[in-house]
Write a structure and sequence with these properties.
Blueprint lengths: L21 H11 L8 H12 L13 E7 L15 E7 L14 E9 L6 H18 L5 E7 L2 E7 L10 E3 L6 E3 L4 E3 L19 E2 L5 E4 L2 E4 L2 H16 L5 E2 L11 E2 L10
Parallel strand pairs: 3-4
Antiparallel strand pairs: 1-2, 2-3, 4-5, 5-8, 5-9, 6-7, 10-11, 12-13
Helix pairs in contact: 1-2
Length: 275
């Protein structure tokens, strides 16, 4: 059997890339659709199953928090009916119920948005477009709050932080594969994990080097069969696991030194979210 557990991740019995998980099955379906697939649904399903393993839905005590993984239609603060399809995965913290007449008051708090796009949009312009879309939504939905932002296009992903008070320098940008033009990313959005997908000197985001969900390709290391993509898979798990384990004011360091000092940095605020 291939060494699927020979991966740098969170110590524990279950990892999303293991063959026994629904997440693994969804990743296989995602890859099976191929690079020309134009529908977003398989991405939503895949990321919902991955996240479900790391955000407990049952509080450890009556006054404890719990999490929800929701696929929602983007809407702003206006009470209008949304005509946007539910194309956003939202990871929400649900605090302990607060007494409010007969029905408890449970104000949700968005911790992360996952924007999923099909593999057919995996190009510099596709990444530019989804970052522009996310920026437009976040500056309305969260004008005063930091929120994690995961951009997932096909089986690739990158991890960002939306910080409405930030002014990232050097400002991130993408480079057109046709004209060589630089497309600037809003300075309030920046990568929170360093790697070959980001030139830290110039700020260029390089989508062809993005993290992948490949849970199948293997290689032999010291006589053992291991996943070739094990470090990226472990990095994803580290990132997701940091949410329930630490408050949003903490810097979360990766578990293993082989991540080369990559860290997840968040900031916090006090306002609540509305459903």
């Amino acid at each position: 059997m291939a060494g699927q557990d020979q991966v740098i991740g969170i110590p524990g019995p279950i990892h999303f890339w293991q063959k026994t998980t629904t997440a693994y099955a969804k990743i296989a379906i995602l890859y099976g659709r191929g690079p020309s697939y134009i529908q977003e649904d398989v991405g939503w399903h895949t990321w919902a199953e991955i996240c479900d393993l790391y955000f407990p839905k049952i509080a450890t005590h009556p006054n404890g928090p719990r999490w929800s993984i929701d696929r929602v239609a983007y809407r702003d603060f206006m009470p209008n009916v949304s005509h946007t399809k539910p194309d956003l995965i939202a990871i929400k913290l649900l605090p302990a119920p607060q007494p409010f007449n007969l029905i408890p008051h449970i104000p949700p708090r968005d911790y992360a948005w996952i924007e999923c796009k099909p593999a057919a949009e995996d190009s510099p312009s596709g990444w530019k477009n989804v970052l522009l879309e996310a920026k437009g939504r976040l500056e309305i939905g969260h004008p005063n709050r930091s929120v994690y932002l995961v951009i997932a296009i096909g089986w690739k992903c990158l991890f960002f932080l939306w910080d409405p008070f930030a002014n990232q320098r050097p400002q991130h940008f993408l480079r057109s594969s046709n004209s060589g033009e630089n497309w600037m990313v809003d300075a309030r959005i920046f990568c929170v994990l360093n790697g070959p997908w980001l030139d830290q000197n110039t700020g260029q985001i390089i989508p062809e080097h993005a993290i992948t969900l490949d849970s199948f390709s293997e290689e032999i290391v010291n006589g053992a069969v291991v996943l070739r993509n094990r470090f990226n898979l472990g990095l994803i798990e580290q990132f997701l696991n940091s949410f329930p384990q630490a408050p949003p004011t903490t810097t979360v360091e990766p578990y293993d030194s082989q991540y080369e000092g990559k860290s997840v940095v968040t900031s916090s605020d006090e306002d609540g979210d509305s459903e």
